[in-house]
Design brief:
By secondary structure, the chain is of the alpha/beta class. The protein contains eight helices and seven strands. The chain has one domain: Aconitase, domain 4 (Alpha-Beta Barrel), CATH 3.20.19. The strands form two sheets. Strands 1-2-3-4 form a four-stranded parallel sheet. Strands 5-6-7 form a three-stranded antiparallel sheet. Strand 6 and strand 7 form a beta hairpin. Helix 7 packs across helix 8.
């Protein structure tokens, strides 16, 4: 697992350039362009299970789904930030992407530190030091575990 760390106000255009909004709609089309204007190495080097750390207001900007769809598709395990833009937060839930607000963990992280998550209990460990974050509601965890809102809803309707 690799941790990618970025600063404050990382907007959706930095995560997925707006110039591709109407030409890329599938995960396979989106993946090569992830973070290309912020971190040219990201798309070619990210692997499933990687984590992103960010500062305040992560995901601000437009409400496009491509950034969260792409990050989920490349296997980002979680995004840990000091705070998230609300529309990005909801879009990430819809895609089943785990978001963790924990400013202390972001500040504590140094390049190369090991990171583990316990989403059920609201814990993140950075370099052996444990930090708490608000426990996610069971419904949010169920959406994540199902792979996103659509699979969760389909399963719920099927089980009625």
């Amino acid at each position: 697992m690799k941790v990618w760390k970025y600063g404050d106000d990382i907007n959706t255009d930095m995560l997925f350039p707006g110039k591709y909004t109407y030409t890329c709609s599938t995960a396979e089309e989106i993946k090569p362009h992830l973070l290309e204007d912020l971190d040219a190495d990201f798309a070619g080097s990210v692997t499933s299970g990687d984590v992103i750390f960010g500062g305040k207001n992560f995901g601000c900007g437009s409400s496009r789904e491509q950034p969260t769809l792409g990050l989920k598709a490349v296997g980002i395990q979680a995004i840990v930030a000091k705070s998230f833009a609300r529309i990005f937060y909801r879009s990430s839930i819809n895609q089943g992407l785990l978001l963790v607000e924990c400013p202390e963990a972001v500040d504590a992280y140094n390049a190369g530190d090991p990171v583990t998550f316990d989403a059920q209990n609201g814990k993140i460990t950075v370099a052996g030091k444990e930090f708490s974050f608000p426990k996610l509601p069971p419904e949010i965890l169920a959406i994540r575990d199902a792979g996103g809102l659509l699979p969760y809803t389909r399963a719920a309707l099927k089980n009625r």
